[in-house]
Amino acid sequence: MLVQVALPVPLYRVFDYSVSTDNNILSNVSLPQIGSRVEVSFGRQTLIGIVIAHIARADSNVPSGKLKPINKCLDAEPILNASMLKLAYWLARYYHYPLGDVLAVILPSLVRQGKPLDLLITHWRILPHVSDDDFHANAKKQKQQFDMLKLHGARGASEDVLLLEGMERAFLKTLEEKGLIERYIEPKQAPSPVTLAKMPLDLNEEQQQAVSAIIATHQAQRYTGFLLNGITGSGKTEVYLQAMQAVLEAGKQVLILVPEIGLTPQTRARFASRFAAHIVLLHSGMNNTHRLQGWQDCRTGHAQIIIGTRSAVLYPFANLGLIVVDEAHDGSYKQQDTLRYHAADVALYRGVQYNIPVILGTATPSLEHLKLVDDGKLVEYQLRTRPGNAKPAPMQLIDARLQSTHQQTTDDGARYDTGLTDAMIGAIRQTLEAGDQVLVFLNRRGYAPVLLCEACGWQADCPRCDAHLTVHYNSQSQYSSYLKCHHCDWQAYIPTVCPDCGSQNLDAKGIGTTRLSENLHAIFANPQTSKELYPIIQIDRDTTRRKDSWENIYQRINQGNPAILVGTQMVAKGHHFPNVTLVCLPNADRGFLSADFRSPEHTAQLMIQVAGRSGRGNKAGRVLIQTLQPDNDLLLKLVKDGYLSFARELLQERKMMGLPPYTHAALIRCEGKTLVSTRQALKDAIAILPSNHNLAVLGPIDAPMSKKNSRYHAQLLLLAKERQQLHHVLSHWWQPVLALPSAKYLKLTLDIDPIGW
Ligand SMILES: Nc1ncnc2c1ncn2[C@@H]1O[C@H](COP(=O)(O)OP(=O)(O)OP(=O)(O)O)[C@@H](O)[C@H]1O
Ligand SMILES: [Zn+2]
Q1: What are the residue ranges of CATH 3.40.1440.60 in the chain?
Q2: Does the pLDDT of residue 293 top 50, yes or no?
Q3: Is 101 helix (H, G, I), strand (E, B) or coil?
Q4: Ligand 1 mutation target, pool 199, 205, 208, 237, most atoms within 8 A of CB
Q5: Which CATH class is domain 195-383?
Q6: What ipTM does the predicted assembly reach?
């Protein structure tokens, strides 16, 4: 028998290797098991791959002289079980991505590197007979390291902890070789059953119906995909919690997907305050050892509640009982490179795989999910009210054409535009004076989006991208003033004169969050002392970059004192600020004018999510939208009839125009050193499409930002009425496209169900 191995190489095939008996140091079984790792030589490299099948010698196409043996088998037990392999096959097929590369995405990097899975539970302890006398006086460093371990007593400590404390691996080895310390594997105790830490709330009628339906599915051990479509603040979390309770009490694991974890310190608290359970967080900020630890905890069933971002949906689970996708409309669930999967779609697949309920929760369902409801593939439950007497805040328009925005005067008499109308400023003042908090939403970080020469019209552009450089200006310190490209991170000093015409008349145009915060400061500071009367808290990627900064911001907000929060889309993601009673959107509706057909949907979702931060406590809230296009149909529809009715109308339009979700899309992007070469490769790709392909082919056209990071991008869009049709064509066409001579030095990628083009 031979083993068939999937290797992390960009080739759409697997590789056969033979096994000699002495390869198999780890087990007595003659063949490495399916789902275990093997190390093999591949060309001149040594790679680690996964055994995916055993085949008879006669079934292999490899000529006998060419067949190589595996170098070694790394696992006595499979690390991926049958259902994980099935998931990998499905991902490879659906996203037309090589199986070996899919596995590379699924496996944590330490596993990929061939590290033993018990790496993290390796503990070190001092051998019983050893004492201080066993050290030479001049072995100072050894003694010092020994003393660190000694502090942990007879049980010692895990290698992970010791390394964190500053011990060095080399010394652990030396001390081990000298017979002073030993390693051992700490047996993991089975987790104790989950108990309630706090009593559940009494559900209202709509919540109760949703919870009952989910629990019934769980008890019947069936799959159902639920769309929990509840307005902001309607208590979707309480539905999750009570559904989870039934699942956890049955001894099963619950996976909760959230858009971003680092940003929401309260995410864990929401679940930890209800359940005494082993909760594991999985997110991109983890180091490799913690990721492996998390992976193992999920795989062994040690983790009971798993809260994670997108990639957590690819983890192995011992006994998964429920998946919750919170804020299921969020764009961050779509991976934008390598394996371009959508975590909500994968969640539904896994629900089918395990026969468990999957909840997609959101106040602003994506059009894709509404269509799935129409098709009977998701069961919708609506929550139409906020619990108690909290009412969703009404949205009001301010016509910025009728009243000009407020002007402010600097110390040296210059006047500048604050970007806010007097009506909006008045409402902010009123709210602060009533002791409440205000949230101002502006989806643009930095000081200003453009630096412009008033004399000749020159603008500061990124030399590497088709984009303006953003002005990051700090009036307190010129050292933190610079120009930056938000696409490739290129940085430059702010010039004092125009590089084209020498004029000193350079002006920062437009408003970002930093400038808006400064403007608000000028408006609301004490006029005599110019001291801050109300704290202005800026929340964007620049101010939350440091590790604890978001937590500090959160604490400041939750003290509840009157304050102005200025934030980007970061503030739209499920936060609960009970003292915010006014939300202001000075120009959020710009997106309704964009050429991208998805822009209205995304703009409306963002506006509704931000608006939903208002009036979540005991006091009523309001939302003010300042606009230059108060008669825009989309805006009026959204404000008057609400998101659902707005979304339904968009859905009708998509149907008429033959756009997703009524058609199925694949986007091919080509990246290279020149636009000509990328376009040519795509033309060649079209030329080899099968004649009866039956698809709409749009392109090749330049990508929306065709030059990015000094590379050029062109794209091609394929649309099909039936999903099957699309996949059928791709399965015959995509690999020949990759092999086109004109594609040789270019990067070609395929995006199934793209969310932007
Ligand atoms: N049945 C209930 N009785 C009383 N209070 C409730 C009930 N259900 C939820 N709540 C409270 O309502 C508030 C809002 O709930 P939650 O944060 O779950 O809303 P949400 O639907 O997730 O909102 P969003 O989509 O805006 O994040 C919370 O403070 C929660 O404790
Ligand atoms: Zn750039």
Answers
A1: 2-111
A2: yes
A3: helix
A4: 237
A5: alpha beta
A6: 0.97
- Condensed to tens digits (0 to 9), the pLDDT of residues 457-498 reads 999 999 999 999 999 987 777 677 899 999 999 999 999 999
Mutate which of 201, 238, 362, 571 to test ligand 1's pocket (most atoms within 8 Å of Cβ)? 238
Domain 395-444+516-652, CATH class in plain words = alpha beta
Cβ(232) – ligand 1 distance below 6 Å: yes
Q: By alpha-carbon position, which residue is closest to atom 6 of ligand 1?
A: 387
Ranges in the chain annotated CATH 3.30.70.600 = 664-752
Instruction: Identify the band that residue 543 occupies on the pLDDT scale cut at 50, 70 and 90.
Output: confident
Mean per-residue pLDDT over the chain, rounded: 90
Classify 349 as helix, strand or coil: helix
What pLDDT is stored for residue 27 in this prediction?
46
- Whether 230 lines ligand 1, by a CB cut-off of 6 Å, is yes
Alpha helices by DSSP H, 9-167: 82-94, 99-106, 109-112, 140-150, 159-164
* Angle of CA points 373, 375, 380, to nearest 5°: 15
Secondary structure in 3-state letters for 10-34: CCCCCEEEECCHHHCCCCCCCCCCC
Residues of the chain with CATH 1.10.10: 119-185
Return the pLDDT at 264: 56
Q: Token match 């020159």: residue?
A: 458
Q: Name the closest-CA residue to atom 15, ligand 1.
A: 235
Architecture of the CATH domain 664-752: 2-Layer Sandwich (3.30)
The torsion defined by the Cα of 36, 42, 47 and 52, in degrees rounded to 10, comes to -20
Backbone dihedral angles phi then psi of residue 225, each to the nearest 5 degrees: -95, 125
Is the pLDDT at 521 greater than 70? The verdict is: yes
pLDDT over 70 at 684, yes or no: yes
pTM: 0.89
- Determine the pLDDT at residue 541: 85
CA 281 to the chain's CA centroid: 13
Domain 119-185, classified CATH 2.60.120, yes or no: no
- Scan for tokens 């990508």, then name that residue: 703
What stretch(es) of the chain map to CATH 3.40.50.300? 195-383, 395-444+516-652
- 8-36 pLDDT, tens digit each: 998 999 999 998 766 555 544 478 999 99
**Binding site: which residues?**
453, 456, 462, 465, 485, 488, 498, 501
Three-class secondary structure assignment of 176-211? HHCCCEEEEECCCCCCCCCEECCCCCCCCHHHHHHH
Show binding-site residues for Zn(2+).
453, 456, 462, 465, 485, 488, 498, 501
Please give the helix or strand (H or E) that residue 242 lies within, else none.
helix 236-249
What percent of the chain stands above pLDDT 90?
66
CATH code, 2-111:
3.40.1440.60
